[in-house]
Design a protein that fits this description.
Elements lengths: L2 H4 L5 E2 L21 E4 L4 E6 L3 E2 L8 E6 L3 E3 L2 E4 L4 E10 L9 E10 L5 E5 L10 E2 L1 H4 L15 E2 L4 E6 L3 E6 L2 E4 L12 E7 L11 E4 L2 E5 L4 E7 L2 E6 L6 E6 L4 E10 L4 E8 L1 H8 L3 E2 L11 E2 L4
Parallel strand pairs: 1-9, 11-22, 16-22, 19-24
Antiparallel strand pairs: 2-14, 3-5, 3-13, 4-12, 5-8, 6-7, 8-9, 9-10, 10-13, 14-15, 16-19, 17-18, 17-20, 19-25, 20-21, 22-23
């Protein structure tokens, strides 16, 4: 990344860890003499197949990727170059008034092995669940595609390379010239729910406005000034948003994980509008301790909204 490029546009891609320009190739056949093992945490580079811009994108829009090189383990091609990878938009904000830049965050979710199995991918090399609090850093890691242009739209150009990691171990048997999957013992999926805190700091600007907050298609509450609430959700992808479907985050929530969303106000041409930001735990907890639980008259989904301490 050259200094003059950093001043040209703003993009956040769901990537954590160091950047590599090649595919990780290594073998691990310790489990069985006739098995090839694809370890969890193996690096795979994928590239954006079609340009994505903050002007057009909205949360949960599909994003197309392609694997950039063969992934080889123990002399066997596990994932072939050119294999499609599936991803989606986490968050997108169009450029705003007074030179406000656009923002864009995307994630890579899965690809396919050479024998046709779905292979889950993630941004971090470490195991899922190591950190039960999901922060802005996890959803907006910095990569060479993180660029900035004052007042411009965020854009990820076709061909931009994104390093991601295998999210699950896979084992194979070599049968002639092909691979066959080895059935592994599976544990029952966790039924623990994700916890989501939504709060609005006590601020003077726009204090009389009460923007609505939604999860998926359900209106949760009219968010008045200086209040908070929490919800419990089953693990899986959910969209937490304002009334405008483009103002929100599409997050694949893990069991037992905790998320914090901060509600604020932004001034438009004629009036203020609600905005939502995925926040870090440390700041969010400090802020929530100063606030009161949202009034019952503001709650629109009483079966979902709960009062919890973070």
């Amino acid at each position: 990344m050259f200094p003059h490029q950093i001043k040209q546009s703003m993009v956040a891609i769901l990537v954590i860890a160091s950047i590599s320009t090649h595919i990780y190739a290594a073998g691990d056949i310790n489990h069985s003499a006739d098995e090839v093992v694809l370890p969890e945490g193996t690096l795979i580079n994928v590239a954006i197949a079609k340009e994505v811009t903050s002007k057009e994108a909205k949360p949960n829009d599909p994003v197309e990727f392609k694997v950039t090189e063969d992934l080889v383990i123990g002399g066997q091609v596990i994932v072939r170059k050119g294999t499609p990878a599936i991803g989606s938009v986490i968050n997108a904000e169009k450029r705003g008034y007074l030179g406000k830049s656009g923002k864009l965050a995307v994630q890579v979710e899965s690809t396919t092995t050479s024998d046709g199995q779905r292979l889950k991918l993630r941004a971090a090399k470490g195991r899922e669940g190591d950190d039960k609090t999901v922060s802005t850093a996890m959803l907006a890691g910095i990569s060479p595609a993180f660029l900035f242009r004052k007042g411009g739209e965020a854009k990820i150009e076709a061909g931009t390379v994104v390093p991601v990691y295998v999210a699950e171990e896979k084992r194979f048997r070599v049968e002639g010239a092909t691979l066959a999957p080895v059935v592994m013992e599976t544990t029952a999926p966790s039924t623990e729910q994700a916890t989501v805190f939504i709060y609005r700091p006590d601020k003077w600007a726009g204090y009389a406005l009460e923007p609505s907050v939604f999860v998926d298609e359900t209106e949760l509450a009219r968010m008045d000034n200086g209040r908070f609430f929490a919800i419990k959700l089953n693990a899986g992808k959910h969209i937490v948003r304002m009334t405008d479907e483009k103002k929100g985050y599409a997050v694949d929530m893990g069991p037992g994980q905790t998320y914090f969303f901060r509600i604020g106000m932004e001034m438009g041409m004629w009036k203020g509008h609600g905005k939502i930001t995925l926040d870090d735990r440390e700041r969010a907890v400090k802020e929530i301790k100063k606030l009161k639980f949202i009034g019952k008259d503001k709650i629109k989904a009483p079966t979902l909204v709960v009062e919890l301490a973070p």
